[in-house]
Amino acid sequence: MQIIPLIDDELDLLAAMLPLAGQDIIELGCGGAALARALLARHSTSRVTGLEVDVRQHAKNLASPQAGLQFIAAGAQAIPFPDASFDLALMLKSLHHVPMPLLAQALAEAARVLRPGGHLYVSEPVYSGPFNDVVRVYNDEGVVRAAAQGAVDEALIHGAWQQVAERRFEMPVRFKNFDEFEQRMMRPTFADHRIDDAKLAEALAAFAPHCGVDGAYFARPMHVRLLRRQAVR
Question: Domain holding 21: CATH number?
Answer without folding.
Answer: 3.40.50.150
